[in-house]
Write a structure and sequence with these properties.
Layout lengths: L7 H10 L17 E5 L4 E5 L3 E6 L4 E6 L4 E3 L2 E5 L3 E6 L3 E2 L6 E10 L2 E10 L9 E7 L2 E2 L7 E5 L2 E5 L4 E9 L2 E4 L3 E2 L8 H10 L3 E5 L5 E4 L5 E6 L2
Antiparallel strand pairs: 1-2, 1-10, 2-3, 3-4, 5-6, 6-7, 7-9, 8-9, 9-10, 11-12, 11-13, 11-20, 13-14, 14-15, 15-16, 15-17, 16-18, 18-19, 19-20
Length: about 230
């Protein structure tokens, strides 16, 4: 059970002056418009759309845009071949080398004769929540204001953070795809627009399902279908 105490009068006053809910954010499972890959040292990115290959290399100094020649099957993946740019995408977990973020594919690029390696495709879930940091994107389908700092940190068997106002902390455990948290202890500050925070506390009062979208966002879903969506902070 979540233990948080706020004066009833304060809650009523805050509810009365709270701003209307913003437009719900893009769904956490929505697919990106294009396939993206990236690499480091030197930094490069590659966008593959149905009509083109768009390469941006050497930290932006080299740009190659060519028509998409169509993918050809290769060992455990696919290839794209043009005069200036060739790409090999293989289904093999990959780390970008600059963070602990992992991707579904390993990508090899040859740009004007220069060979590069990197990662692409969907972002894989972390192997463990312990040591990961997140920021809230939405709670209950309502966007969290960008100017309101939020956080959720997992440290060993404890979690802590803020859903926009009060700091909270408590134990947690993961069993398969279920996250159980609490009891959570929170500070007792009164802030404008606390409805989202209260929705999060209500969500976490019971076990929630734990899933990850292809874009790497963490989705916590209660038995009533309410969600909290968070993005990874690296």
């Amino acid at each position: 059970m979540i233990r948080i105490a706020l004066p009833a009068a304060s809650l009523l006053a805050l509810a009365a002056c709270a701003p209307a809910a913003e437009t719900p954010p893009q769904g956490p499972g929505d697919q990106p418009a294009a396939y993206m890959a990236l690499g480091t040292e030197p930094g490069w990115t590659l966008e593959i759309t149905p009509s083109r290959l768009n390469y941006d290399g050497d930290y932006g100094e080299t740009k190659i845009i060519v028509p998409n020649p169509g993918a050809k099957p290769s060992a455990n993946g696919r290839t794209y071949t043009t005069d200036r740019l060739s790409v090999v995408v293989q289904q093999a977990p990959c780390s970008d080398g600059m963070s602990d973020r992992r991707y579904a594919d390993s990508v090899r690029v040859v740009a004007d004769g220069k060979a590069l390696r990197g990662c692409g495709g969907k972002i894989l879930p972390p192997e463990t929540l312990a040591g990961s940091n997140w920021a809230f994107v939405s709670i209950g389908g309502v966007s969290v204001a960008a100017d309101r700092p939020t956080s959720l940190q997992f440290d060993g068997n404890r979690l802590s953070g803020s859903a926009g106002c009060n700091r909270f902390s408590g134990g947690y455990a993961v069993d398969g795809g279920t996250l159980k948290a609490g009891p959570l202890m929170a500070t007792e500050m009164a802030c404008p627009g606390m409805e989202l925070e209260q929705s999060f506390f209500k969500l976490m009062a019971s076990p929630v399902s734990l899933t990850f979208a292809d874009n790497g966002t963490l989705i916590l879903t209660g038995s009533d279908g309410q969600t909290a969506v968070l993005r990874r902070v690296i």
